[in-house]
């Protein structure tokens, strides 16, 4: 007996049915499609750095600048330092009173790599005796800070040499003292909260 060929739409219906039912008519366990949360919020093929999505923060490719925070590849970079800003992660709600930002930069300049682990003049103490693991890479950790004309900046800074490159990660909290305004301004979050949220966001940094 000849079997009639399925029309195109009949074939589509059959295919759809095959994906929703097993041979005994029982619907199979659905396989969820990939969602935006499965994908990194940022990926740099050159370095292998990825950043997973972080609730309450957004990716930026322009570092916030201010009286004390230049848009250099690392915080408090020397005038002759050569490097590339890669990505920033800014806390939602950041404003001119208080901004929380993770900065990641890289340098393959020989002089910058040689000085990678050196502390800047703005360091507020020695480097921590133990390295900090960030995505499987050991980083030197130290704190920095500065203040001038009612403005302030403080940061937890991390430095590592990997594959001949110097990597800088700075957790920057910067802004203006709210009491200098009339009336005093209300910051979006405290400096302590901003630093804690940025420190937690380090877990989103990974290396391929």
Any overview of this molecule?
- By secondary structure, the chain is of the alpha+beta class.
- The protein has one domain (36-207): Protein Transport Mog1p, Chain A (3-Layer(aba) Sandwich), CATH 3.40.1000.
- It has three helices and ten strands.
- The strands form two sheets. It has a seven-stranded antiparallel beta sheet with strand order 3-4-5-9-8-7-6.
- It starts with 7 loop residues before the first helix and ends with a strand.
- 28% of the residues are buried.
- Residues 1-36 have a biased composition (Low complexity).
- Residues 1-49 are annotated as: Disordered.
What is the general shape? globular
Annotation field: number of helices = 3
Order of helices and strands: HEEEEEHEEEEHE
Main-sheet strand order equals 3-4-5-9-8-7-6
The strand count comes to: 10
Question: Which class of secondary structure composition applies to the elements?
Answer: alpha+beta
What low-confidence regions span 5 or more consecutive residues with pLDDT below 50?
A: 1-23, 26-37
Overall pLDDT score? 86
End-to-end C-alpha gap: 58 Å
CATH topology: Protein Transport Mog1p, Chain A
Task: Estimate nothing, just give the exact number of structural domains.
Answer: 1
Residues in helices, as a percent range: 10-25%
Strand % is 25-35%
Major β-sheet annotation? 7 strands, antiparallel
Biased composition (Low complexity): 1-36
Region (Disordered): 1-49
Write a concise synopsis of the structure shown.
The protein has 208 residues and is of the alpha+beta class. Helices cover 14% and strands 34% of the residues.
């Amino acid at each position: 007996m000849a079997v009639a060929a399925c029309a195109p739409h009949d074939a589509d219906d059959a295919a759809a049915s095959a994906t929703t039912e097993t041979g005994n008519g029982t619907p199979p366990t659905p396989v969820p499609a990939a969602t935006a949360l499965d994908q990194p919020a940022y990926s740099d093929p050159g370095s292998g750095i990825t950043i997973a999505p972080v609730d309450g923060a957004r990716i930026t490719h322009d570092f916030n600048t201010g009286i004390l925070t230049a848009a250099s590849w690392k915080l408090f970079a020397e005038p002759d330092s050569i490097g590339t800003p890669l990505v920033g992660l800014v806390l939602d709600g950041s404003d001119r009173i208080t901004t929380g930002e993770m900065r990641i930069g890289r340098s393959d300049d020989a002089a910058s790599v040689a000085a990678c682990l050196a502390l800047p003049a703005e360091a507020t103490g020695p480097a921590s005796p133990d390295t900090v693991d960030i995505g499987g890479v050991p980083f030197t950790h130290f704190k920095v800070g500065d203040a001038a004309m009612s403005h302030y900046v403080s940061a937890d800074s991390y430095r590592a040499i990997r594959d001949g490159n110097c990597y800088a990660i700075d957790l920057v909290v910067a802004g203006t003292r709210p009491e200098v305004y009339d009336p005093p301004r209300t910051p979006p979050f405290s400096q302590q909260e901003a630093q804690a949220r940025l420190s937690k966001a380090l877990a989103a940094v990974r290396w391929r």
